[in-house]
Prior knowledge:
The protein has 40 helices and five strands. By secondary structure, it is mostly helical. Helix 9 (146-154) crosses helix 10.
Amino acid sequence: MLRIKTIFNSTYQFQRLFSLYKTNNEKNSMSSPAILNSTIKTLIDKKQYKQAVDLCYQNLEKCTNYTISIAINACNILNDYQRGIDIKEKIPSNALENSYIQTSLIRFYTQCHDIDNALHLFSSITKKNSFIYTAMFKGLISNNMPEKVLDLFDEMTFKPDKFILAVLFNACGEVANDRAMKIGRKLLDDMLNNYRNDIVLLNSAIDMLMKFGDVQGAERIFGSIKTKDIITYNAMMKGYIRNKIYEKSLDLFEQINFNVDDVTYIIVFNACAQLANDRAIKIGKKLLHEMPNIHRNNNVLLTSAIDMLMKFGEVENAEHFVKLIRNKNIMTYGALMNGYNINGEPWKCLKIFQEIKQKNIVLNEIIWNLVIGSYSQIGMIRQAEYISNQIPLHIQNEKQIQNSMIHMWGKCGSIVKAQNVFKLVYDPGTVTYNAMINGFGLNGMGSEAIELYREMPNNLHNEISHICVLNACSHSGLLHQAQNIFNEINLKTEKIVTIMVDCLSRLFLFDEALNMIDEYEKKNSPCFVMYMCLLSGARNNRNRNLSEKIYNRMKYLFPDQKQRLGSGVVLLSNIYSSVGEHQLAKNFRSSQIKELGVKVKMGLSWTDANGEIVAFKAHDHSHPQSREIHAEAGRIHRELIEDGYKCDSSWVTRELYEEETIESALCGHSERLAIAFNFIQRPIPEFIQVTKNLRVCGDCHEATKRIARIRQREIIVRDANRIHHFYKNGQCSCQDHF
């Protein structure tokens, strides 16, 4: 092949020559092929791809095979499929046998997702070389067909070079089944000695082994590399994250002693987000604070930072970084929406959803999933109906969306709608069954949860399946059934044992619960949540002595878990109040909260009345209709008194203020105000729905049963633990087991 290297001393000189060539070409079709090919190459070097492609197409018969190949590559850069096809149609048949052109055409077809033509061309080539195999393999991987790479590899008649090996490692890692692992490991074992120092190849091998879950194998290769680059560290850290070994990822990051790249920042932010513990928060915030400005223009990196900050609970800080992104894309909005959901701010998530719609951004499955997640948190049936009617049919038929909708309807208290979606799912998998079992459990339908768990194919059962059905048993008081299922489970994880402790504690079987914890701790580290389950049961039993012992043991075992210990303080102080020790409760609560340095979550209840979501806190007077709401609450209280209701002073969890009574303290609870708000609406809603971020108190539970019967309205209350259906006959779905 003739190659001509023309040196242009200036842009002016090149433009003059290009202009001269075009003028000559118009006058004389026999202009110099050497100048033509050199001009096309220089145009491509200067990224003037359209001019280069047009010039090649107009003078194809004078172009060398190499020039034609780079012109086809330029069509890829321009995303101009039609022009590429036009050039291909004009290529002489003998030129189509040139490996440069064949390789470029394979790249062109695969990048345009025309796999059929790529494979047809590939199969027609009798003398395939390394470049052709590499192009075909890469194209298949980019089109999510890594399994086909392994099929073609089986047909190879020569040993792969280092370029093919790197692509094969990638394909094996993507497939990661038994066949791929066998091929990948054999390729690694048979690798030539002179390749074992090739850092690019070894980085690919590390990535492959990590995708196999062979962390030790990846670590051996990492240890064998004498001069590691940032890509090596990135491959290892990413592999640790993939295998959920987040701490090791941070350990490795702290060993890096040279400048990191954008990929490193993204990986470390991801690891910190997954951990979200004190160490991760310190590393993540320090890295973000010291990040040079050059990295602050990368939207993917900033989106990772936003995700990390949201998982740290630093919503305002995350919002600050959102403002730095000028051209927000669907990934940025997705991270922001997910962050709001994580931090219990679904209304903000829905506000972002409206912003996306106004910008006419195409809504994908991920965004719809996040929106469904927001309505799951809000927990209002009418609101959920509104959003489900907006979801396009082709999105509704996606299994992940169907799973989310089952979960949403379950959390909104509409089991019938959840079951309707469940029946529509083609070939339900583990997640689908788990969502439905969990929905039954939340709504006090323990027997139905057990029945579906038994119908579920055994090979689909996983840890979450066991947790959901045991939780359903716990909330329905089905101890015997829970024990049978628990005994059938081979691998009793921390979460599974915790649910069983919760089941025993709810039935006040504290000796059995403590024995189970002691047995677990013989081989495992103590679990905070197990003790919280025990403390919660002791609170319901008003067992002061046991509660104190449990709390003191928690402080001893978990001194660093200050925020979670704050929840224990609230429970124990409530126990003191329930036995009339209000001053002790006040002193204990204030001193312990101050010592721990934490904030206590404010109780909130929200409701949906005629399409409006309204939130209330206890004794709230902020609503414009506050006077009418409190007047209605007073009327309801008088009706309750006439019905024989008596306030249960044990649920007054603080010292009364001046001129405050037990009745006024309890009647001002946020859920009572939310219920009263519904009754001043015209027309009064057919059913009333309230969601509460804390557990419903025993006095409000008794009052709501009576209100449902007296006012003949079904009332659905979702608290922090479960959903209560208060029926018109004065009964609750939880059968007072809460």
